[in-house]
Design a protein that fits this description.
Blueprint lengths: L14 H7 E3 L5 E4 L20 E3 L20 E3 L20 E3 L22 E3 L20 E3 L17 E3 L6 E2 L11 E2 L14 H10 L14 H5 L18 H7 L1
Parallel strand pairs: 2-3, 3-4, 4-5, 5-6, 6-7, 7-8
Antiparallel strand pairs: 1-2, 9-10
Length: about 260
């Protein structure tokens, strides 16, 4: 019997519950999935499971991680996406076996990323998308195994040079630069036009919106006041999902972002 997904917010997780959801993957890794349970505090009982290889605490309500998390040295995959984390502890650098780390869709600022991340020499995949980052710790440039990086939906006005060497970079929807499409190209980020920032019309003030509409070519203007041109009226609006290539969890992160 697994942990019920309708757990109340702030539910306390016990060691017995953790053992019930412990599974062994086809590759022989010991995996614990505690996602989407409304957990508000890091379960201390997990510290007694030092031999766990994969831990999924995504889509919860975590605001902080304890320094004790550094004792989980067997971890190779840690998924913390879609929580409320504002900073990561220095102790995260003690998880030297990590190959995949996902902390996307949190509240991380650049000051909340510890320099100790540079000690994760086996890290292959790092997802930092959907946060409030505008720079990365310099130590990340020295990670020899890093291949997949997600920086989408952040505040970068300039991408670090070392990212041109990674295999897959997703840096879409940042102020100054877009990443290339996942899996395409040679690993370099494709820069946007300097000084250009795309914004939805709903975020503009009345004066700016009026000016933008007046600057449109005449054949693209309309008189209804909704800002859409004739061609746009004919097309059905679609919104593609957020790309998060290195998420351990399979849930749609776009839906969770909108819900938050």
């Amino acid at each position: 019997m697994g942990v019920k997904r309708t757990a109340a917010k702030g539910k306390k997780v016990t060691l017995k519950m953790v053992k019930k959801v412990l599974k062994v993957t086809a590759e022989g890794r010991r995996s614990v999935d505690l996602s989407n349970l409304g957990i508000a505090t890091f379960p201390k009982c997990l510290l007694k499971m030092a031999d766990v290889d994969e831990l999924d605490l995504s889509r919860n309500l975590l605001q902080t991680l304890p320094e004790d998390v550094g004792s989980l040295t067997s971890l190779s995959r840690l998924d913390l996406h879609s929580n409320k984390l504002e900073a990561l502890p220095e102790a995260l650098g003690q998880l030297v076996g990590l190959t995949h780390l996902n902390v996307s869709n949190n509240r991380l600022s650049s000051g909340g990323l510890p320099a100790a991340l540079g000690a994760l020499t086996r890290l292959q995949s790092l997802n930092l998308g959907l946060n409030r980052l505008d720079r990365l710790p310099p130590g990340l440039a020295a990670l020899p195994a890093l291949q997949d990086v997600g920086l989408f939906d952040n505040l970068f006005t300039e991408l670090p040079q070392f990212l041109t060497a990674v295999g897959t970079l997703n840096a879409k929807r940042n102020p100054c630069s877009y990443g290339r499409e996942d899996g395409a190209g040679d690993g370099a980020a494709e820069p946007r036009a300097t000084g250009l920032y795309l914004a939805p019309e709903s975020s503009l003030c009345r004066a700016c919106l009026y000016r933008c509409r007046q600057e449109r070519p005449p054949h693209r203007r309309n008189t209804r006041g909704d800002g859409r041109g004739p061609e746009e009226d004919k097309r059905k609006r679609t919104y593609s999902g957020l790309v998060s290539p290195n998420s351990v969890a399979a849930a749609n992160q776009d839906a969770w972002r909108m819900r938050g």
